[in-house]
Design brief:
CATH architecture of the largest domain: 3-Layer(aba) Sandwich
Number of strands: 15
Strand order of the largest sheet: 1-6-5-4-7-8-9
CATH class of the largest domain: Alpha Beta
CATH superfamily of the largest domain: NAD(P)-binding Rossmann-like Domain
Number of helices: 12
Oligomer: single chain
Number of domains: 3
Distance between the termini: 42 Å
Mean pLDDT: 85
Length: 340
């Protein structure tokens, strides 16, 4: 499977094999040019066994066969100056060329080997990670939010068909997989069977449905958060297996309508969406020591807006005497200092 999957670990974008190869090719070409020019300028000090005359083509030929091999003896230096040039310029250039050739080969092989080994180690140990299918504006914004919550490094995997998107993901420290996120092969390469959350954010709703179906088929228990461009497609995504469906066009339209008559409402919502800007949404799990009446365990500056029990909403805007149970999930609004 891995031989056909284009997986890109973050460090692979720090080393550019093509750039290194281009630089070494340039150095090799520069050495050939210098030797060709030197031989041509000193052409009277060389002899060609064919006709005795060394022209520019003979100089280029001599430079090529001498640097890349030991030469064939058909163009030879006969003057002292030509012999000195061959000894102190051509011979060191041949050594440098061999070092470049061998070094490039070894480095490319070592880089490929490191990549395969690191990919194998990652596949074996990764679990409870996040997979982002589609790394456009929504996918990158989702990652920024995850990073603020501590999900960094190789715990986030991005699947996207675009090289620019994967390069951006690599700069952010994510593992990248090139291709269509609806492919079972790519999803398995991303270890979606071990993932904690899968975020589905392609550019089309039909693609989102197909990705959601594929993910749910491979991992019936994973939490799937999907984005729908059109409100009418949200039920289809839910029936395909998405746990949470966010409608981008519908939400944007509603915000624009509210902004016309209630600008302060929109400002508060923007603060809630932008972590650390004024107000934050906070979700915490109630432990045994925090069980009991809400008023005894409410944090200073915390406004509890909902309580979930066994994934079911049991209270909206609960009063102070609401009884919290161990394991309840409390959703609240708080200032950044409280949320952290």
């Amino acid at each position: 499977m891995s031989s056909r999957v284009d997986m890109r670990m973050p460090e692979e974008f720090r080393f550019n094999p093509l750039g290194q190869l281009s630089w070494r090719v340039f150095i090799g070409a520069l050495m050939l040019a210098i030797i060709t020019l030197g031989t041509y300028l000193e052409r009277d000090g060389y002899t060609d066994t064919a006709d005795g005359v060394v022209d520019f083509l003979d100089s280029l030929y001599y430079a090529t066969v001498t640097v890349t091999t030991t030469g064939y003896g058909d163009v030879v230096p006969v003057s002292d100056t030509a012999r000195l040039f061959t000894t102190f310029i051509v011979t060191p250039a041949r050594i440098v060329f061999l070092v470049l050739l061998v070094g490039t080969s070894v480095e490319l092989i070592a880089t490929a080997t490191r990549s395969v080994l690191r990919e194998g180690r990652w596949r074996k140990r990764v679990q409870d990670h996040v997979v982002i299918c589609g790394f456009g504006v929504k996918g990158r914004t989702a990652f920024e939010s995850l990073r603020e919550q501590g999900e960094v490094g190789e715990r986030v995997v991005v699947i996207d068909p675009g090289d620019e998107a994967l390069a951006a993901a690599a700069r952010m420290g994510c593992v990248g997989i090139h291709g269509d996120a609806s492919s079972n092969e790519l999803l398995l390469a991303a270890r979606v069977d071990r993932a904690r959350v899968v975020i589905v954010t392609p550019n089309r709703d039909d693609a989102a449905v197909l990705v959601t179906l594929s993910v749910r088929n491979l991992n019936p228990k994973v939490r799937i958060v999907a984005a729908a461009r059109e409100l009418e497609n949200a039920p289809l995504l839910r029936s395909s297996g998405a746990d949470v469906v966010l409608t981008t066009s519908g939400a944007t339209g509603r915000m624009m309508g509210l902004a016309a008559n209630a600008p302060h409402y929109v400002q508060v919502v923007e603060e809630l969406l932008e972590r650390g800007s004024g107000l934050d949404l906070l979700e915490r799990t109630v432990d045994a020591s925090s069980a009991g009446p809400l008023h005894q365990h409410r944090r200073d500056g915390e406004l509890v807006v909902a309580v979930f029990r066994s994934d079911q909403l049991v209270a909206r805007n609960p009063t102070g005497d609401f009884e919290l149970h161990a394991g309840d999930e409390v959703v609240s609004v708080a200032a950044p200092t409280v949320a952290t």
